[in-house]
Amino acid sequence: MILGKVVGTVVATRKDERLVGSKLLLVQPILPSGEASGGPIVAVDTVDAGAAETVLVVSGSSARMAAGQSDRPVDAAIVGIVDAVSMNGSG
Has domain 2-81 been given CATH number 3.40.50.10800? Predict the structure, then answer.
């Protein structure tokens, strides 16, 4: 799973017909601290996420299994909205 922050939306008027009706969001992967980690990715929203929300993203075959995406050309899907992240210190 990838922890990320929704940073935008993607509008594609021409796309594979199996993606019609899918909400596409731009997600910036982040570290648990909230710092950006790598470049943004486009993900299908399966949980009605909104702008600036912290989300959980799955990729590859897991993304296609999310919320009925199995027959769609999907490589990343938002499967959860994160309420809080806490890290336990060692020692």
Answer: no
